[in-house]
Amino acid sequence: MIHITRFFAFYIFQVLILKRLSIGWEGPVFFNFLLYPMFIFLLPLRTPQVVALFSAFALGILVDMSYDSLGVHAGASVLTAYIRPWVLGWLEPRDGYNVNYSPNKARMGAPWFLRYASILMAFHLVFYYSLDAFSPVYIVDILLKTLYSFPLSMIFVIMVAYIFDPEA
Amino acid sequence: MRGLLQLFAAYGGFLAFFLLEATSLVLIVQYNHRQKDIFNNSWGLLTAAAEKQVDNITEYWGLKARVLDLQARNIKLMEERDNARYSTAVYRDSLQADSTAPMFTFIAANVVSNSIISANNSLRLDRGAADGVKPHMGVISSDEGLVGIVRETAEHYCRVMSLLHSQSRIKASIRRNGYFGTLAWNGGDPMRMQLEAIPKHAEVAVGDTIQTSGYSQIFPKGILIGKVESAKLGPGENFYTITVKLFNDLSKVQYVYIVDNLMRDEHEELDRAEDE
Fold first, then answer.
1. Which CATH architecture has domain B100-165+253-275?
2. How close A135 gets to chain B, by Cα (Å)?
3. Which of A133, B52, B131, B234 has its CA 20 to 30 A from that of A116?
4. Min CA distance, B189 vs chain A (Å)?
């Protein structure tokens, strides 16, 4: 239930507030605040992968509709949801996960969550800007845009993690 | 159905991922102008590259027909040359217009097998009696130079005695002054032959071109064979010992022409009369 609430909360926050903060469109200087991938980060560990993929796709499509870029956010979100199990595998603590919980700050601790969210956010941004540019010709632009947007997006992820800090 | 469900249970994550990602890509290309342009452009480049590859392959398939076509054109040109025609111009009361009749024609053939290492080498060609090939016809290379003389023919193949054969004797002359001798091969180097029976009063220089003399009726006159590499006159000898470096490399000959003398029967008739 809380995840459905979160789904819409992230969506509304993303399209109503963060969208207005984005600056610039063409050129290498391009700041974009993407917070909604945090929904994917916080999905419970026992979520079946198919469910995770479909909810990521749904959230991406909704965001796309507001950003007028149908498919770009959805494609990036699906990729992020797809690689999440591998990232979780790399970061697995010595005594394993408790599959009933979400991998969040309250359960896993701040340093772990920061690493986990950073890796996934970096992937998500690379995916997003790759689909946005849609050609390997723009690889430099893709990486520069990722570099600029990464800290800005992470600031919001950290803020949300500290302000709400849910246990579920 | 059960198998399908098992498949979905095992690969459901990947299938869902694939499906959703494909949907996203389709949506991106369908509804975003910039990405659509990039996609169309890339797709155009890809199909152009693919078409070019297909063109290359079909061109390769077309090569065979092209070789046949070029061989036919070459034969036409060779037949038009003076050395392949019989001159019918005769001085009677007044000089008649210079006119010629065809004397030599050519049959294009491919080398099926070849050897150069033994003392008596032979080749096999993919043309035979069915194509009009008869024993004692000459064989010339599609580049420059001679290849050999047909020995036996079968229905579709013929065996050619190579120039590089201990019994090969070709009537050859020096292009510059017309002195003629016999070209033979003493084994060894497949690029060099010996020109014998050039008398000692003839003037021979290194670098002189050797051509067919046309006396044998096997080869037309004036086909280039090679260049004089060295000419020696031993003390008390009446004939030069001349080494000729061949123009063509018999170790890689691939396309040849078989020389057909249309007036061969007349020469054979005269030969018989001479023997009697």
1. Beta Barrel (2.40)
2. 7
3. A133
4. 59
3-state secondary structure of A85: helix
ipTM surpasses cut 0.85: no
Decide if A66 touches B, using CB distance below 8 A.
no
Name the residue ranges covered by the structural domains of chain A.
2-21+36-163
pLDDT in tens for each of the 168 residues of chain A? 677 888 888 888 887 777 766 655 554 456 778 888 988 998 888 888 888 999 999 999 988 888 888 888 999 999 999 999 899 888 888 878 887 788 888 888 888 999 999 999 999 999 998 888 888 888 888 888 888 889 888 998 998 888 887 665
Domain residue limits, chain B: 2-66, 100-165+253-275, 170-249
* A71 vs B: CB within 8 A: yes
Whether B40 and chain A come into contact, CB under 8 Å, resolves to: no
How far is the CA of B93 from the CAs of B87, B99, B100, in angstroms? 18, 16, 19
Rounded to whole angstroms, what are the CA distances from A16 to A36, A66, A74?
12, 9, 18
Fold topology of B170-249:
Thrombin, subunit H (2.40.10)
Contact A75 B24 (CB under 8 A): yes
